[in-house]
């Protein structure tokens, strides 16, 4: 059991090694990471040969399906998501409408398929934004250590001190809640806001992983052969830090999909004219509370899509972590 | 003591930076913020409003005024469509609303946290004790699935089925504890469950993995060799050293809880802080929004500071860190 670290560089919330490595709180769930470097022992091989398993393949199959939905939504043989089948309003699942219809007769399956598109666009862009900036700051903080590290970690801590949903909410509200702002622009600011929120989370994980890898012998070897810092970071440290970043990215996409749902319910998610899973649930909720006799499939259909996607991403994130991280895999 | 001082210093640093961030949130509003706050105010009222918000001062002065306002309980105003010109004629004070809303949100979060821990702790300990058993696998799989259910989805399904369809409880509104204790819990049971379920899964998995590690320690083998009962070993010997990560995460999770409560309050129409925030955004009252964000951030930072201190009290290695050093 390592001695709990008391150095100032662990920041306000840092205590104990496992926690300092990265506890991430976002969108209603807390993820605990261990990002230790892989030591060359038997357990590594065991973890590396760990099979994906039935659940893993199911998760990949579902995510492939969601990707196909998102990419090929316009050419799939489905009705338009905004077409009103006025004779079939509020219908349960049937052959002509596999997931049923909503109160204005729109086909729910079509809306969920188009919703995959908006939800994934927001989630993937926001996480990419977070990966680029959070990854960069985390890498230089963990590599250079010292004062730069202290400054960056404290900035991360400030943004982590504001609950994620509240921070995203405040940013979107300030940037884009003007009714005059166009749909595209609102989506853009939504992505930027959520991306900004994810920077400190990804930054901390990257930093923790870099701290561990940056002091390994091969880094020293590179340096002694005259490699510049930039090259060492790019060629020696980054490839080793990537698995941790990739696993947090998978989980991050899940978190952002949920976050967008929460923001939609608060009225600042993707604008309802573009169906997203979040705003489908939000509009479904309005229908359920306002229209007497409305049926619950309006929230159940998009909820199932979110549930399966988050479940798959959580599982795949765990698999990636288990493959590259001994401490987690050993448990 | 040194630990406390160090943490205190960090607390103030973070508080300082967080307040800087929130105090300048209003500057990020595109265009002239007085038009946004009070769309139909006269030019004179607009000028007064600028003065009242210290927009005519330097950023440093403005920050100072804002912080001292917050410290004195002046959280700003809701500006009507015409714009109220002076602080004395502020009929709709943000602080008045906070007084009503904050206890409601605190109650909601406290119950949710309590319920989550009450369920998660025994489950975590038992699954660790019976690690690998069918019971352990079932509980773990369930917890993993629960993690993937967003709290608002659970809230909407509970509100629809338990509330509207089966009519067990009223799905909206809030009753004060002093007014009607039974009604209070009836109104809060669904929101509390919606908030707690995700946390249960997090806490349980965490405690389980820590307990499994602790149960492999030599002192546990020793206790077993002495012939102590499993219950005594689990609770007296193994639980306390395993509970430290749980404590930290429970503290950090308050952030998730706050975010969850914001959404859940709006679903169940509970007039807490989250409801106020959504309302302030819809009405574009950014001065109020600024104060709400500041309050939630400060609360979260202070909770984590207290957790740090509690952690030091619970963990003798930190308590006696100086003696060891």
Brief descriptors of the model:
heterodimer, A: 331 residues, mainly alpha, MetI-like fold, two-stranded antiparallel ribbon, 2% strand, disordered N terminus, disordered C terminus, B: 325 residues, 14 helices, 0% strand, globular
Structure, described:
The complex is a heterodimer of chains A (331) and B (325). The model of chain A is unreliable at 1-49 and 326-331 (pLDDT under 50). The radius of gyration of chain A is 22 Å and the shape is elongated. Chain A starts with 16 loop residues before the first helix and ends with a helix. Chain A is mostly helical and 331 residues long. Chain A contains twelve helices and two strands. Chain A has a two-stranded antiparallel sheet with strand order 1-2. Helix content of chain B is 75%, strand content 0%. The mean pLDDT of chain B is 87. Chains A and B meet through β1, β2, α5, α6 and α9 of A and α1, α6, α7, α8 and α10 of B.
Number of strands of chain A: 2
What is the count of DSSP helices of chain A, taking H or I runs of 4+ residues? 12
CATH class of chain A equals Mainly Alpha
Helix content of chain A: 55-70%
Give the H and E element order of chain B. HHHHHHHHHHHHHH
Structural class of chain B: mainly alpha
- CATH superfamily descriptor of chain A: MetI-like
- Most extensive chain contact? A-B, 64 and 73 residues
Chain-averaged pLDDT of chain A? 81
Portion of residues in beta strands of chain A equals: under 5%
Number of strands of chain B: 0
Count of individual domains of chain A: 1
Supply the number of helical segments of chain B. Answer: 14
Q: Major β-sheet of chain A, in short?
A: 2 strands, antiparallel
Short note summarizing the structure:
The complex is a heterodimer of chains A (331) and B (325). With 331 residues, chain A is mainly α. Chain A is built from twelve helices and two strands.
Task: Indicate the topology.
The complex is a heterodimer of chains A (331) and B (325).
Chain A: H1 17-20, E1 23-26, E2 29-32, H2 42-48, H3 53-72, H4 108-144, H5 146-160, H6 164-176, H7 183-213, H8 217-224, H9 229-265, H10 277-290, H11 297-324, H12 326-330
Antiparallel strand pairs in A: 1-2
Chain B: H1 2-23, H2 33-37, H3 43-52, H4 59-71, H5 94-129, H6 134-147, H7 151-165, H8 181-215, H9 218-225, H10 230-267, H11 273-282, H12 286-314, H13 316-319, H14 321-324
């Amino acid at each position: 059991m390592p001695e709990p670290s008391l150095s100032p560089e662990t920041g306000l919330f840092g205590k104990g090694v496992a926690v300092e490595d990265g506890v991430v709180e976002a969108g209603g769930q807390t993820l605990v990471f261990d990002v230790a470097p892989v030591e060359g022992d038997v357990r590594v091989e065991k973890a590396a040969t760990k099979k994906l398993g039935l659940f893993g393949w199911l998760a990949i199959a579902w995510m492939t399906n969601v990707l196909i939905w998102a990419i090929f939504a316009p050419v799939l043989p489905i009705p338009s998501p905004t077409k009103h089948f006025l004779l079939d309003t509020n219908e349960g699942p049937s052959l002509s409408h596999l997931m049923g219809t909503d109160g204005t007769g729109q086909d729910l399956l079509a809306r969920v398929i188009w919703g995959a598109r908006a939800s994934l666009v927001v989630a993937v862009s926001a996480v990419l934004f977070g990966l680029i900036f959070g990854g960069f700051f985390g890498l230089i903080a963990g590599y250079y250590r010292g004062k730069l590290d202290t400054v960056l970690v404290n900035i991360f801590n400030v943004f982590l001190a504001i609950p994620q949903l509240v921070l995203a909410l405040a940013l979107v509200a300030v940037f884009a809640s003007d009714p005059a702002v166009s749909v595209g622009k609102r989506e853009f600011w939504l992505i930027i806001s959520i991306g900004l929120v994810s920077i400190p989370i990804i930054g901390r994980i990257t930093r923790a992983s870099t701290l561990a890898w940056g002091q390994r012998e091969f880094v020293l070897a590179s340096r002694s052969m005259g490699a510049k810092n930039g090259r060492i970071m790019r060629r020696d440290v980054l490839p080793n830090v990537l698995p941790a970043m990739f696993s947090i990215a998978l989980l991050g996409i899940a978190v952002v999909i949920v976050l967008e749902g929460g923001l939609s319910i608060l009225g600042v998610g993707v604008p309802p004219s573009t169906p997203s899973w979040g705003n489908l649930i939000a509009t479904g909720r309005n229908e359920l509370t306002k229209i007497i006799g409305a049926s619950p499939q309006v929230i159940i259909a998009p909820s199932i899509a979110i549930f399966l996607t988050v479940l798959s991403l959580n599982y795949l994130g765990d698999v990636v972590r288990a493959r590259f991280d001994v401490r987690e895999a050993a448990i | 003591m040194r630990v406390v001082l160090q943490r205190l210093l960090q607390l103030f640093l973070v508080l300082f930076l967080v307040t800087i961030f929130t105090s300048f949130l209003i500057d990020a509003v595109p265009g002239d913020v007085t038009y946004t706050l009070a769309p139909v105010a006269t030019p004179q009222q607009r000028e007064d409003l600028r003065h009242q918000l210290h927009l005519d001062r330097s950023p440093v002065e403005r920050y100072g005024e804002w912080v001292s306002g917050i410290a004195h309980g002046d959280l700003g105003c809701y500006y009507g469509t015409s714009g109220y010109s002076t602080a004395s004629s502020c009929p709709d004070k943000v602080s008045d609303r906070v007084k009503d809303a904050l206890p409601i949100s605190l109650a909601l979060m406290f119950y949710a946290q309590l319920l989550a821990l009450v369920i998660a702790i025994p489950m975590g300990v038992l699954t660790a004790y019976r690690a690998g058993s069918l019971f352990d696998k079932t509980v773990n799989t369930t917890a993993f699935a629960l993690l993937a259910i967003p709290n608002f989805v659970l809230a909407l399904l509970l509100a629809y089925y338990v509330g509207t369809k089966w009519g067990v409880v009223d799905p909206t509104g809030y009753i004060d504890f002093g007014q009607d204790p039974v009604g209070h819990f009836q109104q809060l049971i669904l929101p509390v469950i919606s908030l707690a379920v995700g946390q249960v899964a997090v806490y349980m998995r965490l405690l389980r993995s820590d307990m499994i590690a602790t149960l492999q320690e030599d002192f546990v083998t020793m206790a077993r060799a002495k012939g102590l009962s499993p219950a005594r070993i689990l609770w007296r010997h193994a639980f306390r050293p395993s509970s430290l990560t749980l404590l930290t995460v429970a503290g950090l999770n308050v952030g998730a809880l706050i975010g969850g409560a914001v959404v859940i309050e709006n679903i169940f129409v509970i007039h807490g802080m989250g409801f106020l925030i959504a309302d302030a955004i819809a009405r574009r009252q950014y001065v109020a929004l600024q104060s709400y964000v500041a309050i939630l951030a400060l609360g979260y930072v202070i909770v984590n500071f207290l957790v740090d201190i509690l952690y030091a009290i619970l963990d003798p290695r930190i308590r006696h860190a100086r003696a060891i050093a």
